[in-house]
């Protein structure tokens, strides 16, 4: 898990890849549609997951990210 159980990105892999903190205002201010597009299509160093995850899985991940709101 690159972002870690708390979403901070402070895992060895997360630190090495400099992943974004899912709890940050920068991530949380994005709309659900924007987050889903990032998961599906990838962005920057993040790979695309559209070919590996269905729409329901992507929606579930967006809901999971929302649980990290401060």
Fold topology:
Layout: H1 12-17, H2 25-28, H3 32-41, H4 55-66
Helix pairs in contact: 3-4
CATH top level class name: Mainly Alpha
Q: SS-based structural class? A: mainly alpha
**Amount of helix:** 40-55%
**Main sheet record:** none
Strand content: under 5%
The fold-level CATH name is Cytochrome Bc1 Complex, Chain D, domain 2
The tally of structural domains comes to 1
Q: Identify the CATH homologous superfamily.
A: Cytochrome c-like domain
> Can you count the helices?
4
Mean pLDDT: 93
Q: Supply Rg.
A: 11 Å
Task: Report the CATH architecture.
Answer: Orthogonal Bundle
Q: What would you call the shape?
A: globular
List the uncertain runs.
Answer: none
Question: Can you describe what's shown?
Answer:
With 70 residues, this protein is mainly alpha-helical. It has a single domain (12-66), classed as Cytochrome Bc1 Complex, Chain D, domain 2 (Orthogonal Bundle), CATH 1.10.760. The protein has four helices and no strands. It has helices spanning 12-17, 25-28, 32-41, 55-66. Helix 3 packs across helix 4. The two termini are 21 Å apart.
């Amino acid at each position: 898990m690159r972002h870690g159980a708390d979403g901070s990105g402070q895992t060895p892999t997360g630190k090495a890849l400099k992943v974004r903190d899912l709890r940050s205002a920068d991530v949380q201010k994005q709309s659900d549609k924007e987050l889903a597009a990032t998961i599906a299509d990838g962005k920057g160093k993040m790979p695309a997951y559209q070919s590996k995850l269905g729409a329901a899985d992507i929606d579930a991940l967006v809901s999971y990210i929302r649980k990290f709101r401060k």
